[in-house]
Amino acid sequence: MNTRYSDKRSLPVRVLSLLGKILILGTASIFTAFPFIWMIISSLKTKAEILNTDIFLPTSPQWSNITGIIFNSPIPKYIFNSAWVSLVIVALQIVTGAMLAYALVFLKFRTNKLLFTIVMGTYMLPVAATYIPSYIILADWHMLDSFRGLIISSTVSIFGIFLLRQGFMQIPKGLVEAARMDGASHWRALWEIVCPMTKSSFITFGLMNFISTYNNYMWPSLITKTSDYFLVSQGLRAFFIRDGAYGTEWALVMAASAVVVVPLLVLFAFTQKWFINGIGGETGIKG
Amino acid sequence: MSKKKTKYKRRYDSLPTVLLFVLPALIPLIVFWIYPILRSIYLSFTNWDYISPTYKIVWFKNYASLFRNPRFYEALWHTVVFTAGTLFPTIILGLILALLLVKNFRGSGIVKFILFSPWITPTVAISIVWSWIYKVDGGIANTILTNLGMSPLKWINSSDTAMLSVIIVTIWKSLGYSMIFYLSALERVPGELYEAGALDGAFGWRQFVDITLPSISPTTFFLSIITMVNSLQAYDQIQVLTQGGPAGSTRTLLYMYYQLGFQEFNMGQATAVAVVMIILTAGLSLIQFKVSEKWVHY
Fold it and tell me: Are residues A128 and A19 in the same domain?
C-alpha cells in the first residue's frame, strides 16, 4: 500500500509489517517457483535417485536425460508443430481481427452496432460448447487430423478484436479522415496509420494469442489423432502415458516437461511487460 | 474546419468496403462460433449418436433424463465446489500480493515474474509436474507433510482429496493473473483519495477498507466473473491429473460434456450439458454487463 502515509506508525510496527511482507511474498514465490524447480531437479536424477525420497539433489546431474529428450524423442517435433501452427494462426488472427476492429471503429455502416453486439455476445460463451458441431464441420470437410483443420478453425480471436478495438478507439478519428481525404484507401489507413500508432496492442495481441495457441490442449487433442500433428500439450500428454513410462520413467517425463517449459519461461522473461499490458492495462476496465 | 469534411463524415462507407473489412473475421466467426452454438442447441433436442446417419427430434427428453440423472447433479456440485474453491483464494491472495507489490522495491520485478510465470506455461506440462509432486509414494508433497509431522495424503488417488488437489493446481496457475489485474487497478486509484483520507485520519487498515477496497471493487467484480467463467471451462488439469475420477469426484460439467460427447458419443445428452453451460455463462456475463454498466459512472 501507500507507505507515504503510513510513516507515522511506530518503528516496531514498521519492522513487523516489513517482516510480514517478506514472509508473505517469500512464501508465495517459493510456492509458485517450487514446481518448476522440482521439475528441473527431478529431470536430472537417475532412475534410482528419483524413487528415493531421502535424496533431494542428484549426486551427479544426468544431463543425458535432457539431451535424450532433445535428440531422441518426438518432443522437439511437437514443439516445432506448436510453434509454426501458432505463428500461422496468430498471423491470421491479427489480420482478421485488425480489419474487423477497424470496421467497428472507423467505418460507417448501418449494422455497426449490431455487429459489435454479436461479437461481444460470443466473447464470454464457453468455447467448448462449440466443439461438437465444429468437429462435425471439420469431419465433413475432411480436415480432422491435419494442421489445416487446426488452423482453419482458429482464424478469429474475439479477445484480440476487443484488444485492438480498445486501442483503435484512442486514435483521433480526424487522423484517419485526413488520410482518407489525401486519397489513402481504408486498407492503407489501417496498416500505415492505425497499426503503427497501436503497435503495443498488436504486440500484446500477438504474444498472448501465440502462447495460448501454443499451449492449447482440449480442441487440438479432440481433432488430431496422429502424433505427426500433435501440438506440444497433446504430445507431452502422450509421452506421459505411453506404455511403461507412467510411474517408472519420471525422470524422463520431467525432462520432457522441462524441455517444453523452460524455453517458454525464457520467452516470457523478455516479453513480460506486454502480457501485463494485455491483462491489466488495456482491458478498458475502470477501477 | 471545411464544409467538405462534415459532408464526408456523414457519408456511409460503401457496402463492398464494409464487407471486405468485416467478412474475413465474420465468416469464421459464424462457421466456428455462432452456427456451432445454435447447432448445439438444436442437437440437444435430438437423440443423435454420431454414428447413425439419421436421428429423431426428442424435444426435452435429453433435458428430462439429464435432470433425473444423479451424475448431472454430482457434476454440477463439483463445478460449484471447484469454482468457489478457486475463486476465493485467487481473488483474496491475488489482492494481498498486489497490495504488497504495488510499490516497487528491489526485487519486486523478479517476484512478479515468478508469480505470473505459471500462467504462460502449458497447463498440461505443469499438471504432469504436479502429478509427480502428488505421487502417494515418493511424491514431494507427502515427503514435506511427513517431515512436518503430518500424515501423508492420497491426493489425486482418493475421492476425498482429488478435488482439493486439482483446486490447488488451478490456484497456483491463476494467482499471478489476478495479482497483475489488481496491480494495474491499484495503480489507477487516484492519489488525492489517499491524501483526502489522510486528512480524515484514514491510515493502514482504515485506509484500505474506506478507500482502496471501494475504488477497486469494479476490478474485483470483473475478476470474479472471469475466474468463474474460466473455472466452468477448466479441462486440461482435470484431464491430466484425474480424468474426472476417482469415482467421478472431479467430474465437472465440462468434463461430463467431454465424456458424454467424445467418449460415449451421446451427442444429445452432451449438447444438453453444453446448453446448461451456455446458460450459466450467459447468466454470469449478463450480470457482469448490467453491474458494470451501473459502475461506469462510479
Answer: no
Claim to verify: residue A52 and residue A176 sit in the same structural domain: no
Report the range out of A131-145, B204-218, B276-290 with the highest average pLDDT.
A131-145
Superfamily classification of domain B61-295: MetI-like (1.10.3720.10)
Write down which residue in A33, A50, A66 finishes a domain.
A66
Same domain, A143 and A178: yes
Which grid cell sits at B231? 473455472
Q: CATH number for the domain including A102?
A: 1.10.3720.10
Mean pLDDT of chain B: 88
- Per residue in B192-251, pLDDT tens? 777 777 777 666 777 888 888 888 888 888 888 888 988 999 999 999 999 898 999 999
B234 three-class SS: coil
Q: In A, which residues are within 8 Å of B55 by CB distance? A: none
Instruction: State whether B278 and A126 contact (CB < 8 Å).
Output: yes
A155 and A197 fall within a common domain: yes
* Residue A287 covered by a domain: no
A117 touches chain B (CB under 8 A): no
Which of B132, B183, B274 lies at the smallest CB-CB distance from A254? B132
- Whether residues A124 and A255 share a domain: the answer is yes
Q: What percent of chain B has pLDDT over 70?
A: 94
Residue B202: per-residue pLDDT: 65
Per-residue pLDDT band for B172 (boundaries 50, 70, 90) equals very high
Residues of B in Cβ contact (< 8 Å) with A95: 24
Residue A120 maps to a domain: yes
B206 touches chain A (CB under 8 A): no
Query: Chain B neighbours among A 118-147 (CB < 8 Å)?
Result: 118-119, 122-134, 136-137
Interface membership of A156 toward B (CB under 8 Å): yes
The ipTM is 0.88
Residue A2 maps to a domain: no
**SS3 of residue B44 by DSSP:** coil
Q: How far is CA B287 from CA A176, B224, B225, B230, in A?
A: 36, 11, 9, 16
The whole domain housing A35 covers: 11-66
Output b/e per residue, B59-91; b: 16+ Cβ within 10 A: eebbbeebeeeeebebbbebbebbbebbbebbb
Q: Are B48 and B55 in contact (CB under 8 A)?
A: yes
What phi and psi, each to the nearest 5 degrees, are found at residue B57?
Answer: -80, 125
Same domain, A42 and A149: no
pLDDT of residue A194: 93
Q: How confident is the model at residue B175 (pLDDT cuts 50, 70, 90)?
A: very high
**Taking a contact as any Cβ pair under 8 Å apart, which residues of chain A between 62 and 81 contact chain B?**
none
How many domains is chain A partitioned into structurally? 2
pTM for this one? 0.89
Please tell me whether residues A122 and A31 are part of one structural domain. no
On whether residue A286 sits in a domain, the answer given is: no
Same domain, yes or no: A144 and A95 = yes
Residues of B in contact with A137 (CB under 8 A): 31-32, 36
* Cβ density class A243-282: b for 16+ within 10 Å, e for less: eeeeeebbbbbbbbbbbbbbebbeebeebbebbbbbbbbb
Q: What is the pLDDT of residue B10?
A: 53
B114: which chain A residues are within 8 Å (Cβ-Cβ)?
29, 32-33
